[in-house]
Amino acid sequence: MLGKKSDPKDLKKALFLERKNAWDHIPESQQKHLETYMKDYRSFLDYAKTERESVDTAIEILEKAGYTDIRKTQNTNKIYYNHYGRALAVYRQGKSGVQKDLRILVAHLDSPRLDLKQYPLYEDEEMALLKTHYYGGIKKYQWVSRPLALHGVIAFPDGTVDTIVIGEDEDDPVFTIADLLPHLAGKAQMEKKANEFIPAEKLNILFGGKPFNDDKELKDRVKLNVMNLLNDAYGITEHDFVSADLEIVPAGRSREVGLDRAFIGAYGQDDRVCSYASLRAVIDANDPEISSLVLLLDKEEIGSEGAAGANTWIAELVLGYILARHGLDQSGVIRRLLANADCLSADVNAGVHPDWKEVHELLNAGYMNGGLILSKFTGVRGKGGSNEAPAEFVAKLRDLFDKHDIIWRIAELGKTDEGGGGTIAKFMSYYCMNVIDAGVSVLDMHSPFEITSKADIWMMYKAFCAFLES
Ligand code: MN
Ligand code: MN
Questions:
Q1: How far is ligand 1, taken at its centre, from the CA of residue 329, in Å?
Q2: Is residue 419 within 8 Å of residue 237, measured between CB atoms?
Q3: In angstroms, what is the span from residue 3 Cα to ligand 2's centroid?
């Protein structure tokens, strides 16, 4: 107990929770390391705009750090498992061996975007256009009137797969969705609700405008010309779109935001900010006692369904590979190991927006520069569709993070009646393990230009390292 404190100021300091700014707790000696980390993180964001590109870029980083494909080695230390090129598992064996215990970081590599439809290309008013189908929770009006890039793969019946990136190099053309001019938008748009004035079927990409030749009798000359250009560059015909995963994402690179460069602005930080921190933590953790498993997964933005998402057996699959090398691939061993694991579901939370405070319950909100944000549960209204981390697990993490001078707080996603959201955490809880959401606050989440704080990212990275070393 505190004993008798006569000064109410001292008593208040001892008893009340204090709001902390993460910048105040980053020593001068760490500043240079912080800026190097941010530069590396930004280059990850610039090369990895889709889940497949994220897997490829992560593998490059891992191989440089001495990690090997599990299919190419008998070793079980520092290995990775590439799951269809769309999800990735990383395993680092701890000093206590493969069987003792497990620390898990799980994050997602997919972000909201526009996918091309399976038959996307058509001509209208002598312009070539591409039809899209949006993926994840977007505000459709944010995707018009901006430069867009095309990223993805085309798979051919002979088994080969080509990758495409158009719109990122300085000399590349970009694409766009043209909005309607304000002069004519009165009835067509301005009197409508925000979720109705850009209908999904008007999210069509401007893809070309030159006719193939001057034969005016020929129909669809502009479509023919762009199809011909695609054929020259990639050898494809219109049939090949059906076996392609082509994504439209914002063109251009990440930027520092603010005169003091406090923030990072970029597409796809939900959830590559946590994926990258998880990847770096497993590589950088200092000689961990307990083994680490990092899962970087696809399809979180549409509910974690699908063969590369969290609603699969992927954790068992990877551990099966590893334990089999030690003659221990019985499902009982794997399930006990998973049930006893501690897991951070690394995902972002909503930062308090100074102009839209009314959607947050400020006592239990995550704010920018608030450090690592833990969410005891996600879900909607009466905690529907969530798992909830038990008090004992939160206490263990409190102790760990405080001992490592990590600035952190707990936050809910908005007011109880306001909305809500889900993450991967509940899928990990199916394995009966302890799991809690941990990440950073984001402003303008799911937009083409999401904002994060460098101080928060730094605290998250330090927290993930401390967790894997614990
Ligand atoms: Mn997310
Ligand atoms: Mn999201």
A1: 32
A2: no
A3: 47
